[in-house]
Amino acid sequence: MPGLRIHFTAADVARVRFAPRPAPLQELHAALATAVMPGRDPLFDHWRGRVLRALPAAADPLADLVPADRPPVFLDVLADTLDDSFEQIRATRPETVRAELERVYGAGAPPRWVRGLHAGEEASWRAVRRAQRAAYETVLAPVWPLVRDLHRDAFARHALTAAEHGLAAALTALAPGSRFDGTVWRWPASSPRAAGRDVRLDGRGLVLLPTFHHPAGPLLQDRPGRPVVLTYPSGTGLPPSPDGSGSGVGSRTGSTASDDPLAPVLGRTRAELLRLLAEPRSTTELARALRVSNATASEHAAALRAAGLVRTARAGRSVRHERTALGELTAGTRPAGPGSA
């Protein structure tokens, strides 16, 4: 059976990008898809049972939205936070919502609350938001810091491969068994949803987003007039867990200068400061976390800023620091933990 075929134009080659951060709702939907497909990957069986037992009743409406494994496309959004994701979904044009619900249900009779979505009722949209948040808090919130770390590793690895060996090498590296044939990127037939499918980018470009909860193959978002989004399996093939087991990386909690490869290069305090900037922080927050004075934290941040690893901006009375793209790549280097290759 033939696999997925993605057709590039010359314009598309310049419009391929790797998503710099994970998208919480995309990762959640990938995780839920894996949870309800038993037998697809035995390494996920224990995780699958635990997730299905733990999901609260508040998440039940999500199952109503995906009958027969056909989710409406308006649920697929790329946003850095859960709240931004909700806002993007709610901003979907009413005619798109109606068309997608009619496509998903066909001649079937949807539940009453789904008919409320079709009619634009706010109570039904609030039910979607409650269900997604309940599922996220149960399935992803305990491992989200690890997902961010894994995503940063994948981003750094593929960015460096593209820089050193070219885009074609970076793309085929993220999909073992795939190959380029002229202007066509051919994937093996690993996912029934994508098998035998031709996707023509036609100048729209391609966004590549790793997932760590869907080992069965790629997920596609192909909407007219928008870049195609390809969510591809990454990681070790084991579900992330809060203690870092199964992830292929060790936990950073409690790391010391002796096991942090950045410490000999940047110094222990500056390496720890760079780690802390996984999320933007103020000088006061950094000083508190590092147990140093504000002046000392500011001095270390200035040194990292001079090296191009950190950027600083004033927000009211405080100063906020965040990592640059180079800082993200640098912080992606970490000691290998249990289960690493």
From TrEMBL:
Record InterPro entries: ArsR-like_HTH, HTH_ArsR_DNA-bd_dom, Metal_resp_trans_reg, WH-like_DNA-bd_sf, WH_DNA-bd_sf
The HTH arsR-type domain sits at 265-335
Please verify whether the record's keywords include Transcription. yes
Which keywords appear in this protein's UniProt record, sorted alphabetically? DNA-binding, Transcription, Transcription regulation
Annotated region Disordered: where? 216-264
| GO function terms (MF aspect) | DNA binding; DNA-binding transcription factor activity
Reply yes or no: does the keyword DNA-binding apply: yes
Domain of life per record: Bacteria
- Name the CDD domains for this protein: HTH_ARSR (cd00090)
* Record's protein name: HTH arsR-type domain-containing protein
